[in-house]
């Protein structure tokens, strides 16, 4: 069973939407019988807001789901009301990014491409601090760095570490964020992480030329309880966007496969990371 309240909320939303459709009810019809507004039910089914266990029970009764199946979903709804560790950092994490961290915490597989900087999941404390100073300033920087470092626990989880495939543009290695010492340490950490059995890092060399992700970094998240319902996450300076439609997920998945084929292999990438660490200026 999933442990992230964010993922549990998505699971409940998906189940309630499917059950309503299977019963041939429109949003308006179901909302009236559940004594809620159509807009609220729509937001629940899109995982924009949560739903209380008692309201889940009422919805399941309407959709003629009972006994063990109903209790499983009600228990998931209870879990969706819990607070994830990231809620302790809600003063420094934007709401839209809290949503992403909740997904990340439950992901079983992550595939990502980064063009300019080391992904947050693999940053050292010094590199993370330098990035925050560059992008948002020094307000609450210690807590922001602490939250970023805590996210990285999913890479080393004893029982179920996330499987991470990361393609890094060679420019990431060449841009000395924080100065030579900070960058050298960061590159060494990347090389060390790449030796974990659940982590694959590939460097996309400049010599590879143009590629299909030149306009956008991305993260593709997949989940053990719903492998067919992956999410593509895109981010800019002030907001994040989650794409769930199969055509979007399929398109980004094909792009990632293409980048992996164009990039250096894992062993050659580790060697390049070590070399870049030694030669950083």
TrEMBL record:
The superkingdom of the source organism is: Bacteria
Q: Which SMART domains does the record cross-reference, listed alphabetically?
A: HTH_XRE
Entry's InterPro entries? Cro/C1-type_HTH (IPR001387), DUF5753 (IPR043917), Lambda_DNA-bd_dom_sf (IPR010982)
According to UniProt, the name of this protein is Transcriptional regulator
Which species is the source of this protein? Rugosimonospora africana
The chain positions of domain HTH cro/C1-type read 16-70
Please list the GO terms describing molecular function.
DNA binding
